[in-house]
Amino acid sequence: MPDKKEQKSKKLPEKTTQTRKSKAGKAAEHDMFPIVAIGASAGGLEALQQFFNNMPPDSGMAFVVITHLDPKHASRMAELLQKNTEMRVFEAQDNAKIQPDTVYVIPPHRNILVMNRTLQLLEQPLSPGLSHTIDIFFRSLSEDLKDRAICIVLSGTGTDGTSGLRAVKTELGMAIAQDPGSAAYQGMPSSAIETGLVDYVLSPAEMPARLIEYVRDFYGKPAAMRRDAVERVPGALQKIFVLMRSQFRVDFSAYKEATLRRRLERRMALHQLTDLRQYLRLLQESPEELITLYKDFLINVTNFFRDADAFISLKAKLSLLIKEKPEGSTFRAWMVGCSSGEETYSVAMLIRECIDEQKRNLQMQIFGTDIDQDAINTARTGTYPQNIISDITPERLSQFFVSKDSTYQVKKDIREAVIFSYQNALKDPPFSKIDLLVCRNLLIYLKPDVQRKLLALFHYALNPGGILFLGTSETVSGFGEQYAPLDRKWRIYNRRPVSLSNWVASDAPMVFAGARDAGAQIFEGKRAEKQSISDLAEKLLSSVYVPPAVVVNRNKEIIYIHGETGRFLTPASGQPRWNIQEMAREGLGTPLTAAIRKAIADNSVVSYKGIQVGYNGGTQIVDITVQPLHTATEPLLLVTFQSVPDSGKKGKRSRSARIPEEQCTELEQELKLTRGNLQTIIEELETSNEELKSSNEEYQSTLEELQSTNEELETSREELQSINEELMTTNSECQSNNEELTHVRDDMKNLLDNIRIAVVFLDGQLRVVRFTVEATKLLNLYATDEGRPLAHVTSNMIDDTLVEDARKVLDTLIPVEREVKTTNGKWFLLRLMPYRTIENAVAGVVLTFTDINVQKDLNETLKNALDFSQNVIDTLPYPFLVLDKDLRVTSVNRAFSQMFKTTPKQTERKLVYELGNKQWDIPELRRLLEEILPRDKEFNGFLVEHEFPTIGLKKFLLNARRLHDSVGTTEKILLALDDITNREPANPGLASRKGPTDGTETKTAK
């Protein structure tokens, strides 16, 4: 049976090629053959073997297998997979043109990409940690094949493949993930499934059939035919829009129909549906499919610092904008269509870097909005897989992220500066007073009129001089007066201070009719929590007559205001604050604070009278009362203010409005005590501050050391994970090798047990390694003798020189072969050969004993037969010769030697024509021997008359016969001489009658 590798390396016959075209591979005739990228890591070898065991060899597809390999270990992945498929399996070569029905395997220490259906190999960087080779190829494939890219994620740890799968789905490609239940390691397939972008979750054995169906239905049909299947049903998209709006309250009629139609075609192909009516029915009956289509329509695909050069340009523009912001102000940014938050956090990092580099005292407030609630929830956690390291520099990763398990989370200070919320930008009110507005790759999916409305909305939301950052395929066409380009290549624009009165009314009426800052919604929850307290205070104060008053909590925050309190309280400058101490007018702050503190401490009513409070350039006399209120939620305080009429002139303090002497004494004592306590507290505070400062420095130093140690540990963990991945892959290959070795060992055992030949294997020290059962009949070996020196083993051979012969073979590497006889009279052919490894190194000696008793018996019988024949011939009175097929003498009998005065040694191995003085070189004899005898096998009675130098004139009648052995390989000629010199033939005509069988006359040689 021919070797499988040889079969696979041969060119496929023409008939096979024709068969292939009749199957799913027929798609190659129309749209070029599919390229399937398969990513696998730990436990992936078994999954790959199951996959290729079930994939037909003539599917018309090409497969590129990307695994995590040890860069220092030669991979046998291609060799191992070759046993599971009849397709050709190669280790990928640089600039190799991809061919159908072929499997390409990534080589060690290389990243693999594809361009124009040609493989490109790049050396992996030396950076520590796991190299995301699967993500790299998936992204490359999506860029090269667009919506025709197909990717599969198999068993493995970590998250490699997830980011690349997102890129494939961005271009409307197809993605399959292994069912985690069938995976040896669930990390990679589970991470891919969690994106919500996977089309099929299958076991490896189920994937080939689904792949073939998808290729047949998607690749096998031209784009026009697929589009016609959708357009055949009038108003098909509108029907789907209605289903979407009723289920998700999102109107997709503003999106470009061509974009949505491609996604619809792909979903139909995944379900093998060609009639849109059937798919509409599926959407009505399957909420899961409606959700999947909704997710597909949303196109939630993004990553950190997408288009890195664009963010470099943006940072330069942000630095100038931040430089112009007033000290202590807030920089506001808004990401429209933020998806899962990667770009939002990217912008937050840029802003933070610019503020820190300029050492400005600025706050930042960033809003990220989207209509996909699941994406918003993901963004709020700020947790992302490990493969983000391919998009983020190590410096930013260390500064803005913390490592948690197998993920990275954005640090708390950045997450707290970013607010994610649900918002439909086409219908909900926008944010306002925005310094930076980012809307990347959303406008390209919308119709032109909707794009104009959004650009008008953006102009409204931006501050004068604010920055608008769009995607590379988007533009502000038609809004040249409203936006000035800052970087045309990367679509960065500056808002011009142009009036919108000419075009707002027609382009964006749904926004500016009663628009308000959507950021105010954030505080609605807190208002709701305080509503019950406000209701309680209102009921309390409205039930009785109460002068101007406020209700505060123990933190002095005003909860409720009753009456005209402007004479006593006034808002402080800066941002609005509702602290009663900060709002108190001049002269009221200290007694008000003392009264609140005393009321809280004593849980009693405290009143201070005759307090001089500044008002309208003069003073007024005020009485205050602080009364504790007990509610079900929290302790509150009711502070009432009562103005006391004064008789003095405005601007002068009234002498009659004096505080009673008893109250003054009490206040003086309290003030003295307070000052003493305050001095003690100040001293203790200073001491504590010094201690805290010292401790803080120590903690800071310790924190820096811990951070450095943590970074080192993180780097080590990534390196260990990378090594672990490589070891798992290598272990899978070794396990497969072990299985092969087990089969080979079993084959060897059965072979040695059944060939019935005595074989003994010796190592380099001539110790017994293993032996066959037959060897125990010649050498006294037992199962426990493995490892025993050969010199300690006795044999049943008469001439026992095994040890000497074995040493000779080891020293000279020249095989030894000889016949040996046992004590029971049996003969064996002993061969001693050097034992050579695969690397051609000599590691011992192999002894084989072949039973030759039958040959010995045959040889003895043959020798006896030859001796008998020779004796018979020697007893004949006639001279007799035996010639070989070349007419050389092999033997003569005794009569011939005596007659011609010669010996056997003088005649044997000579041509018959060279005997004596060439007296046998007779032309007629030549013709008889060379022409007639080969044809007729014999002749008789040929008369030879010749003058021989030693015996004189002689007459002979020659008789010859040609003989063959049983197999026709050996030829002999028997030649007999009948001496008739001294006698006449009994019948004178005998010679003529018994001449050559061809009818020629007998002639006399002279």
Features:
Rossmann fold, disordered N terminus, alpha/beta, seven-stranded parallel sheet, about 20% strand, single chain, Chemotaxis Receptor Methyltransferase Cher, domain 1, seven-stranded mixed sheet, about 1000 residues
Tell me the domain tally. 6
Gyration radius, rounded: 53 Å
CATH secondary-structure class of the largest domain: Alpha Beta
CATH superfamily of the largest domain: Methylesterase CheB, C-terminal domain
CATH-derived topology of the largest domain = Rossmann fold
Overall body shape = elongated
Which sequence of strands runs across the widest sheet?
Answer: 3-4-2-1-7-8-9
- Strand portion, in percent? 15-25%
* Major β-sheet profile: 7 strands, parallel
Number of helices: 32
